[in-house]
Amino acid sequence: MDLINKFSKQRGRVIDFKEIFYGYQRVNPLYGVDYMLDMLLMYKKYRGKKMTVPVRRHAYLQQQFTGFEVREVLDGSEVKLKTQQQDAEAYDDDDAAGNPSRDIADNGMVRVEGPPAKRRPDSQTKTVHFVLPLFNRLATFARFVDNYESVCLANDERVTLTVVPYGRATADGAAATVAQLAARYPDARLTVLPDAGGQFARAEALHAGAVHAAGSPPDDLLFFVDVDMLWTAATLDRVRLNTVRGHTVYFPIVYSEYDPVVVYGRASGSPNHFLVNQDTGYWRQYGFGIVSAYATDLAAAGGLDTSIRGWGNEDVDLFEKFVRSRSAVSVFRAADPDLVHVYHPVECDAGLPEPKARMCANTRFETYGNVDQFANIIYKNRDAVYEFAAGRLRNVSTAATQPPPHPLPVSKSVPRPVV
Fold first, then answer.
1. In CATH, what is the architecture of 123-371?
2. pLDDT tens digits for range 54-89
3. Residue 56 contacts by C-beta under 8 Å, 6 or more apart in sequence?
4. Which residue, among 193, 247, 191, has the nearest Cα to 218 in the 3D structure?
5. Cβ neighbours around 303 below 10 Å, total
6. What is the superkingdom listed in this entry's lineage (predicted)?
7. What residue segments make up the domains of the chain, in order of their start?
């Protein structure tokens, strides 16, 4: 109602809310929350020809996840925006004098979409240094390299790639794949470091790759990625524009695919990895593994904890360092629909400590599918589900009524515990 009555004084009218007959809402993961409301309003015009009439209107609203943030940068540095005097919007009272419905509709109640954003001419000037840790997964690495070639090298993007392999077989396989790419693009800056040796440690790998990739300022924009990622040129634009030296580090929120067997009924993968909706995947709100930052800001925050071994925690540790940092660097988080984590089965090492094992298990569960999809699976297989549940109940009931097979003797000197 504040939106509707924003220009009441200029238009000489006020609109009062009476009731909502019905309404719908949905969450659009790219924009925010959409609402459709059927409302009864009272239109009161007190300037010119006075009138008071009831009006029933459908209101289509969109509540964005966050407000707009406008920032101008030049060569990686923040540019202060000059305060501009906004021109007052002119209104013709006669336009709406006889049409209160039109007056209401003119107040932003209808969603308006602008033209698609164009790439800024200066968005390709920064060199983005890709740093990729790698352990086994050579087939997936080949897909990563194909995407890197089609998006980056074929379009003359200013990028470099540093691969940090673990294991001799991984190092040899990665070197062979990169050598084929280098033969097609002799000027590309492609590096496969020697086998790091020892147990795979992502923090250690990222640190080694960052030390090798980072050049002298201002050419040290680091982009830490995983081998399962696919991206488009729009992601590179966001990395360059959202990462500002001494000001901002960028932790994009990645879109992660569900199991294609659940989504498409096949194991061969998604036919369109960049199809973003509630059925194909989910946003990794609590994933911090993909990050872009300048090497100087990374060092100022404390860098990566190379003592962390095995699965997980190194990304959360780095994110918390930037959050706690007393420097001027702030964290920027935003969903990136052009940065996709391709589905793969999550395998949790049996030797993981309890907190990491729980984190890994939760990640594995989230990647299967959404609630609606599993509800449909249960519905289609309800007889099998009922039979399984009945069997579990029978087993629990039998175990509860039978005494233990070898009861332990209880000493008379030690009282039984009270249960």
1. Alpha-Beta Complex (3.90)
2. 989 888 888 887 766 677 777 666 676 554 344 334
3. 21, 38, 39, 40, 41
4. 247
5. 15
6. Eukaryota
7. 1-64, 123-371
